[in-house]
Amino acid sequence: MAKTGKPVIQVKDLYKIYRVGDTKVRALNGVDFTIYKGEFCSIVGTSGSGKSTLLNMLAGLEKPTKGEIVIAGEHMEKKKENQLVKFRREHIGFIFQSFNLMATMNAVENVALPLTFQGVKKAQRMKKAEALLDMVGLKKYKKHKPTQMSGGQQQRVGVARALVVEPEIVFADEPTGNLDSNTSEEVMRLMQKVVREKNQTLVMVTHDNHLASFADRIFHIKDGKIVKIEDNTGKRTGEDSPAGEAGGDEKTRADGPAGEAGGNEKPGEDSPAGEAGGNEKLWADGPVGEIGGDAQERSEKKEDGAQGAAGNGGAD
Fold it and tell me: Which of 303, 301, 298 is nearest to 288 (CA)?
């Protein structure tokens, strides 16, 4: 795409240096780039290239040793932890490799959950969640729980959940890492559709050059440096295929019900915080509150409190 739009992410002279004994490891070694509104950009590199560290920096999960990260006009490197938590909740959506859906909730409830923590009324958040599930091709699966859906369907729920707060930016961490190749392409076409239809800025980290080719621009990272930025406009993979339509009614398959996809799971070292579970920090402060078995209970308590306050002008 023409790089003349509004800058949404600006990275300037970014360094991240770790000490390992007496040795300095330069995970990021002077990174500069700009991403514009409505772009789909992929950051591609092998394990140890620095791509996961870079995603951590962009999401405000780690502080840089040096440099600037400006997202939606705000300096991430200057924010305190509580400010970063608030910023992520309000401005950023996340799509995870391992889906991170709540097993006790159906698709609509999973998508609506981030809005619960923003105090949105129940009727409004359910309406919004249902509309997004329609958009991602899951109209018939709204009442299904994660274990009743294939891996591809679960990731579609994950995409809808990332969009429900209308974020400026969506970060996708190896979003197809637990899926087979056919389902992976369906998810990538869906992500292209989201970018086009909603003018959404989307940044994806991947080790897979083929999946990276679905993006508008490809940032190649090696040894902590961006070695090439490839303008992929006009030659994107998947552009001739119907976006997001193939997988909505797919049958449960080998990549399918939760817990069976692990055979194709990529090593956790490429994920922002180590493992798929290493993304817990995003959830602990992030779009759906706390990870784990207490999350629904916390949500229900918030719901009960909101309902009790309805007579006094509460959220619900």
Answer: 298
Q: In total, how many domains does the chain have?
A: 1
pLDDT (tens digit per residue) in 33-54: 999 999 999 999 999 999 999 9
Nearest-angstrom CA–CA distance, 274 and 287: 19
Please state the pTM of the whole predicted model.
Answer: 0.75
The CATH number of the domain holding residue 139 is 3.40.50.300
Range of the domain at 230: 37-51+80-310
Of the candidates 168, 96, 161, 88, the residue with the CA atom closest to the CA atom of residue 131: 161
Q: Which two tokens stand for residue 17?
A: 């240096």
Position 225 in a domain:
yes
Mean pLDDT (whole number) for 117-130: 94
Contacts made by residues 255-258, CB under 8 angstroms, sequence distance 24+: 255/150, 255/151, 255/152, 255/178, 255/179, 255/180, 255/183, 256/149, 256/150, 256/151, 257/146, 257/147, 257/148, 257/149, 257/150, 257/151, 258/99, 258/101, 258/103, 258/146, 258/147, 258/149, 258/154
